[in-house]
Write a structure and sequence with these properties.
This protein is an all-beta fold. Helices cover 0% and strands 59% of the residues. Strands 1, 2, 3, 4, 5, 6, 7, 8 and 9 form a nine-stranded antiparallel β-sheet that branches. A hairpin with a 2-residue loop joins β3 and β4. It comes from Microbacterium schleiferi.
């Protein structure tokens, strides 16, 4: 799927296939995730990511995202300890740095639009 220039897209209506979160990343429930890359702009990939209710751990990449729908609490973990917690809701913009260890606790299916650039500056 891709976005053409000057073609609007209803990101909430884009169908995403989801897969179960792998056992080693799952913390609670039976969450599923799915994503689709939509465009590459100036070396950055723009896409949509979704996670159903449940909890999982992740190691992040350089990313900026905006929450479109859903609710979650995200914990920043350092040396096995939670050092910060944020609540994300529709309209929240957040930046993640590569290597951050996070725990996502989704209470209402979360959908976000992301912008990601690899550490070496390419997509």
């Amino acid at each position: 799927m891709s976005v053409d220039p000057f073609e609007p897209m209803a990101v909430g209506a884009v169908a995403l296939g989801t897969d179960p979160v792998p056992d080693e990343a799952c913390l609670a429930g039976t969450p599923r995730t799915g994503s689709v890359d939509l465009a590459t702009v100036g070396g950055a990939v723009v896409g949509i990511w979704e996670m159903t209710a449940g909890a999982m751990r992740d190691i992040e990449v350089d990313e900026v995202f905006v929450v479109i729908s859903g609710r979650a609490t995200v914990e920043l973990v350092e040396s096995g300890r939670v050092v910060s917690t944020i609540e994300i809701v529709p309209g929240t913009l957040c930046r993640l740095d590569a290597g951050m260890q996070t725990r996502w606790h989704v209470t209402e299916t979360l959908r976000k639009v992301y912008i990601v650039v690899d550490a070496d500056g390419t997509s």
